[in-house]
Design goal:
Strand order of the largest sheet: 11-10-9-12-8-13-14-15-16-17-18
Distance between the termini: 65 Å
Structural class: alpha/beta
CATH architecture of the largest domain: 3-Layer(aba) Sandwich
Number of domains: 3
């Protein structure tokens, strides 16, 4: 029987009301004093039994009622994990966590002098230990769900969202964790990161289980794999989309980036998948096929003749895509509402995944026609203008190439693009992104994406290394103005791609986060332009 552990009667009442109304979210379960737990609060030694954990000091609190990595959210009786990080070190905040009532501290560092009431646990890998403890704390919700994990540089969000749609159409209640949103039954939250931290992830899987979900589809980032956020999760199906240059600021080399992705398939995340769905049109995908764990079944997809799920006879328009699917069920005509050749690859991946989950391919193809699309992924902005406006998340050289080359054959006029490069991220891809835009688009406006702690002038300097047609690119610092200029330049039959941020509703500048949504901005400017509220006269680059 489920028991709710609370700090107060009032908190328990609020928690129950939130649960009944579908408004409960993961923050409450993490450190706010409200904990969904199976049975009584677990004994601290039971949580760590058999794991890589040494009890250096045993305090007076035998029970744990919350898990935390943020010292500001510690409540009495919480277990605080002092994690090392790229920006800060959790060990610097142990004293604050104790002051706020932490009953126990987990760290990779030797113990400092602390009050005798506090338990101190030392480990060789705090993140891995946190994943194992979180699974125990929440009663192993991952065992109640059929888990699907999707990794790769591009396509994860579209594939995961489409998989959830297809599974739900087949009558399977399915949770979703990805770049755009965390969906836990009736509850949906904007996503903070592609793959949540292990304790948040377990909390959300627990909520899915409580909501009656039987499946969960997840985007699995390379950071999530490398930082053990998905350690020990028994993915029944793992899928690989492609590997192109991204996150080199973190991984340092493409080889390291590939090896981290491969861990999801070779058992080096603590569990190996039963089925691996891999894109063999991608060179890294073909290489990955030979790295699977023993016993993992391989399903290949792509346009290659060797693929188990293969597309041919492609026909693309501004309304969608048609192709013939060759798969174990035979040859099937597919009509997809998604635009472009790369979305054919995404559809193949999703169909292969749901078929591996036991769904008929023909049923999935029927459900595909009803797919509403993904926010910020080739999302059409229509205010009655005579040209096409699309907002997309493309923020890598390959993604920009794919998006722009897709628009070319379905555009009667010119292809225009607004794009930028994020600050404090891989600098090596900046000139490559510019070159991709210069090759594929007729005219471009380079602007701010999320500059973060970098000067925009420095980002522009890197981007200018890829310029090959200086007369066809304009440098505009303000993103709204850049969008304004692109829309003002568009004529009937043109396509305008606003790339880089997609679903994001903010911009990051140093320590400031400002509200900004490409989709909202484009609609406002288009409507103002139609009513004569925008003065285009004299707008230069």
């Amino acid at each position: 029987m489920t028991a709710y552990t609370t700090i107060s009667k009032t908190a328990q009442t609020q928690f129950t009301q939130q649960r009944q109304s579908g408004l409960w979210h993961s923050g409450a379960a993490l450190c706010g004093g409200l904990v969904l737990n199976r049975g009584m609060n677990p004994d601290i030694r039971t949580l760590f039994e058999g794991l890589d954990a040494q009890f250096v000091q045993t305090g007076s609190q035998p029970k744990v009622n919350a898990l935390c990595t943020d010292s500001r959210r510690v409540s009495p009786g919480a277990l605080f994990f002092a994690l090392g990080g790229t920006r800060t070190d959790g060990n610097m905040y142990v004293e604050e966590a104790i002051h706020r009532g932490a009953a126990a501290i987990v760290s990779e560092s030797p113990s400092a002098l602390m009050p005798p009431r506090v338990t101190f646990i030392q480990t060789g890998n705090a993140r891995r230990l946190m994943a194992e403890v979180a699974a125990r704390f929440y009663g192993h919700p991952e065992k109640a769900l059929e888990l699907v994990g999707i990794t790769g540089t591009n396509g994860k969000t579209t594939i995961s969202t489409l998989c959830r749609h297809l599974l739900e159409c087949a009558g399977r209640r399915t949770g979703l964790l990805g770049t755009v949103a965390y969906v836990m039954g009736r509850r949906s939250l904007p996503a903070a990161r592609t793959t949540p931290e292990a304790m948040e992830l377990c909390s959300m899987l627990d909520q899915m289980r409580a909501e009656g979900c039987t499946s969960a589809v997840m985007e699995v980032s390379s950071h999530g794999i490398d930082q053990n956020r998905v350690w020990g999760l028994p993915f029944r199906i793992a899928a690989f989309t492609n590997l192109t240059q991204d996150h080199i600021d973190y991984h340092k080399t493409m080889e390291s980036y590939f090896e981290v992705k491969a861990r999801l398939f070779n058992g080096h995340t603590g569990c190996a998948p039963q089925v691996a769905v891999i894109n063999i049109d991608d060179a890294c995908g073909r290489r990955l096929c030979s790295k699977l764990a023993p016993g993992t079944r391989l399903v290949r997809y792509g346009e290659s003749l060797a693929a188990d799920f293969r597309a041919d006879a492609l026909s693309m328009s501004e309304k969608g895509t048609r192709f013939v699917l060759h798969c174990p069920e035979g040859s099937i005509q597919v009509e997809s509402p998604l635009l472009g050749r790369y979305n054919v690859s995404n559809v193949l991946c999703a169909l292969a995944i749901v078929n591996a989950a036991g769904i008929s391919v023909s049923d999935a193809v029927d459900a595909l026609r009803l797919f509403p699309g993904v926010p910020g992924r080739m999302e059409r902005i229509d205010c009655g203008q005579g040209f096409n406006v699309l907002v997309d998340y493309a923020h890598t050289p390959d993604a920009l190439h794919n998006a722009l080359s897709m628009l070319r054959p379905i555009t009667r006029g010119r292809v225009l693009v607004v794009f930028g490069c994020g600050g404090n991220r891989d600098r090596g891809k900046r000139p490559l992104m510019t070159r991709a835009v210069q090759v594929e688009a007729d005219e471009a406006w380079a602007t701010a994406d999320n500059p973060r702690g970098e000067q925009l002038s420095e980002i522009f300097a890197d981007m200018k290394g890829g310029v090959i047609r200086p007369d066809a690119i304009h440098w505009v610092e303000d993103r709204r103005r850049a969008i304004h200029l692109a829309l003002a330049a568009a004529r009937d039959g043109d396509s305008v791609l606003i790339a880089g941020k997609g679903h994001e509703a903010y911009q990051e500048f140093a320590d400031t986060v400002s509200t900004f949504d490409d989709r909202v901005t484009a609609r406002e400017l288009l409507r103002l332009g139609r009513t004569g509220g925008v003065d285009y006269v004299g707008l230069g680059a």
